[in-house]
Design brief:
With 317 residues, the protein is mainly alpha-helical. It has a domain of 184 residues: MetI-like (MetI-like fold), CATH 1.10.3720.
Length: 317
């Protein structure tokens, strides 16, 4: 197990390093000039050159990269070129919206996928099971932004159950208002991701129903449902854990997109604004943090899967 953990940790560090290089180089090919953004339209060429020199934008790319990644290794994500505020402080503030939204979306997705996926598999030869399968396919193909607009039209503008946009100015100091403002965005992401996960749950349940020990239990007098619950669901759970790493990545990406639609002051809105303003240190550190979060979750899922599945312990890391 120690060898497995060290191998996964090494792969995680390599993936983070490769990701940092890709992010750094990709952002340097974006059009625009941050010095022009800071100096404004009236800035002279001499002023723009002075701004670039002060920000180190004229240094070789390798020097800029080493300066940035060296700061990251010392827990310094840099400073915003436009606001002068430490990037870590702004990330911590925006995370108070993005992370609760992601967790709420995950709960919604699981509440949809787990029971309905099992029912769709158990009752696959009945009309209701077929309908659930079709609905899963349909909602999995729906873009989250389109689903969000439909939910706003129905639940906010139509029924008035949720606010259409916005987040309390004082944030979680008003917990119910903050929670209420995230309900509809979480429902939007959760329904779409839940439909995707429902298909995996249905497939895993069908596989479990066909396993010899489940069929044997059913042949000895157990109902098919009881045999599945008693002997099949553990294997279903293992399959779902394997998929959750990818699903959480989808939830984080969905949160970044949906924040724009619902005007939530999270990482998504901040990232879009910073890309437009060419605030490179802030953008590259934000993307690196999001990528690191996804990679860490994926690694944690691998470790948990190996811990609870005895068969995985026999596989060489």
């Amino acid at each position: 197990m120690l060898r497995f953990l060290l191998t996964r940790l090494g792969l995680l560090l390599v993936a983070l390093w490769v990701t940092s290089v890709i992010i750094f180089l990709a952002l340097r090919v974006l059009p625009g000039d941050v010095a022009q953004v800071i100096g404004g339209t009236t800035a002279t060429p001499q002023q723009l050159a002075s701004i670039r020199a002060g920000l180190g934008l004229g240094d070789p790319l390798i020097v800029q990269y080493l300066h940035w990644i060296g700061g990251v290794l010392h827990a310094d994500l840099g400073t915003s070129l436009l606001t002068g505020v430490p990037v870590a402080d702004e990330l911590a503030q925006k995370m108070q919206v993005t992370m609760p939204l992601t967790m709420m979306s995950l709960v919604v997705a699981l509440l949809i996928a787990l029971p309905l996926g099992v029912v769709a598999a158990v009752r696959r030869h009945h009309p209701d099971g077929g309908i659930l399968g079709v609905l899963g396919q349909l909602f999995a193909a729906v873009p989250a932004v389109w689903a969000g607009m439909m939910f706003i039209a129905v639940f906010s503008l139509g029924l008035g159950l949720f606010p259409a946009q916005g987040f309390p100015l004082d944030g979680w100091h008003r917990p119910w208002q903050a929670f209420h403002s995230l309900m509809l965005p979480a429902l939007t992401i959760g329904v779409v991701e839940g439909a995707v996960l429902l298909r995996f749950v249905r497939s895993a349940t069908l596989t479990a129903l066909g396993q010899d020990h489940v069929r044997t239990a059913a042949s000895k007098g157990m109902t098919r449902t009881r045999a599945l619950v008693t002997h099949g669901l553990p294997s279903v759970g293992l399959s779902i854990i394997s998929v959750l790493g990818l699903q959480i990545a989808g939830l984080i990406v969905g949160a970044v997109v949906i924040e724009q639609l619902f005007a939530l002051p999270g990482l998504g809105r901040m990232l879009v604004s910073d890309v437009g303003n060419r605030d490179l240190p802030k953008v590259q550190s934000t993307i690196l943090v999001l990528t690191a979060l996804v990679l860490v979750v994926g690694t944690a899922v691998d470790v948990v899967h190996r811990l609870i599945d005895p068969r995985q312990r026999e596989v060489v890391a």
